[in-house]
Amino acid sequence: MSQQNQNYYAVLGVSPTASMEQLRAAYRDKVRIIHPDSAVAASPIASLQMAEVVRAWSTLSNADLRHAYDADFFGAEIEIDDSFPPAPIVRGRFPKGLIGSILAIGVVGVLVLDVLSGPAVPAKPDGLLQAGSCIAVDSNRLAVEVECGVDHYGVVRQLIGFDMTCPSDTESIRDRQGMGQACVVPSQ
What we know:
Helix content is 36%, strand content 14%. The protein is α+β, with helices and mostly antiparallel strands. Among the domains are: 8-74, Helix Hairpins (Orthogonal Bundle); 134-186, no CATH class. The longest helix has 21 residues, at 96-116. It is elongated and about 110 Å long. The model has no long low-confidence stretch (mean pLDDT 83).
């Protein structure tokens, strides 16, 4: 079929009264199906079909070329369906009020929970040394965690491996659990 006698509307699969949005949607659908790089259209004629679709889209997407094509192909003026004008693009608004309300509720909730909760109870020794643990030294010269309210030997500044040395202002005492050495700041 020659280029002049080819029905571009049929190539795209739309009616001659199709709106620009309908043409665009039909063009995109056709390209997805017959593009030579797609796995669906891996055929020798895919390139030729793609060229026909692009030629039809190029003509029908330009208002002046479409008008001339319609007059030449149909011999009469065709009324285009623009009963569905494109919807205006409206930017979404940031929900400042909602975010502010959620933030205010969160702050009030934290304050209420703070008022309703009792005083913080110091954690009981769990037997695992960590920085800030109060220790006593047992008869084997090993560090044992104790409550800080009782008489204690010192406070652990840091834990280190057996192959490392503690800073000069601390004393190195082995952990009773065998996890390493405790660098202890002795109590005065």
